[in-house]
Structure formats: C-alpha cells, structure tokens
Amino acid sequence: MTSMTVSSAFEIGKATLDLARRSTLKLVQDIPPDKLTHQPASNTNHALWVLGHLASTDNFFLTSLGKLEPVIEESWNKLFGMGSEPTDDPQSYPSLGEVKAGLAKARTALAAWFQSMDEQQLLTPLPDEMSSFAPHFAALMCSIAWHEGLHAGQLSAVRRSLGLPRALE
C-alpha cells in the first residue's frame, strides 16, 4: 500500500473542491437573471441563496478554524449563513455578480489556506463540535465538497422547476 503525502492529500482534496465548484457553476450558468430567487417549492433554497451560502460556508471555515480575516461581507452571514431563510425578493440580496465574486474570493482563500498546511496540520483533528463533519483538516476539503454537492442537488431541482435542461451529465 502506498502512503499518501501531504501534497497528494491536498491535491485530492483540491480536485474534489474544484469538481464541486465547476458543477455548481454549470448548474447556474443559464438560469435567467429574473429567476435567481425562484423557489421550486415553499421554503426551499433558490440559486442565489445557494451561491451565497457556499461563499459564506467557505468564509466560516476560514474564520472559525483558520482564524483568518473574513473575505466576504459580514452581512452575508445573516443572508446566507446557517439558519438563514431564503426569500424570493431579489432586492434582499447582493447582485449575482457580487455573489459570484464573493464565491470565487472565498474559495480561492480557502484553497490557499489548505495548501499552506503541513502534514501535521492537515492531520490535526477538528474541534469536537465539528468532528462529525470531518475527522481532520485533510478530510475537511472533501466534506466541504460534499456539502456543495448537496446544494448542487437543490440547484438541479431549481433548474427542473424552471423547465431548463440538465446541465450535468
């Protein structure tokens, strides 16, 4: 059995994060601008909320575990953070361009943070309150990608409810 190096552990995690993000962006690329806050059913997540939530989640890990400065607006936590309630009012949200910029900025910072870790840091167990999400930092990259995949399913439901074709094969 070949042992995994820090470099390969990072590359696997980064590839997983990149796949999730490419898929997410494909799922939203042709949603009409006036349908970004369309909810396929009552109390469900819409595309703009999902994108903001993913940026907010990356930012959460950067600030809570990485102890780094936030890379997105603090106000986004109320709009997109855990426990927030999506609304179909587009005026309640930043523009799609702002959300996509925050999404890219947060993911770039998150990837750089993971890449800065050495083997000992990557294998450090997460705090008890986060251990059910991932056992250590190395696994956290894949857990974050899984979380994004969960929301990609919601984007797929948004697409179907709008009559859009499949975006992923």
How is this structure best described in words?
- By secondary structure, this protein is mainly alpha-helical.
- The chain has a single domain (18-161), classed as Four Helix Bundle (Hemerythrin (Met), subunit A) (Up-down Bundle).
- It has six helices and no strands.
- It has helices at residues 6-28, 47-64, 76-80, 96-115, 119-122, 137-161.
- Helix 1 (6-28) runs parallel beside helix 6 (137-161) and helix 2 runs parallel beside helix 4 (96-115).
- The longest helix is centred in the last third of the chain and has 25 residues, at 137-161.
- The relative contact order is 0.21.
Tags for this model:
single chain; 169 residues; mainly alpha; Four Helix Bundle (Hemerythrin (Met), subunit A); 6 helices; globular
Element-level helix/strand string: HHHHHH
Sheet with the most strands?
none
Give the overall silhouette.
globular
Q: Tell me the radius of gyration.
A: 16 Å
Helix/strand-derived category reads mainly alpha
How many domains? The number is 1
Per DSSP E runs of 2 or more residues, the count of β-strands stands at 0
- What are the segments in which pLDDT stays under 50 over at least 5 consecutive residues? none
Question: How many angstroms separate the termini?
Answer: 33 Å
**Beta-strand content bin:** under 5%
Looking at this structure, what is the CATH superfamily? Answer: dinb family like domain
How does CATH name the architecture?
Answer: Up-down Bundle
Classify the helix fraction into a percent range.
Answer: 55-70%
Mean pLDDT: 94
Q: Report the top-level CATH class.
A: Mainly Alpha
Query: How would you describe the oligomerization state of the chains in this entry?
Result: single chain
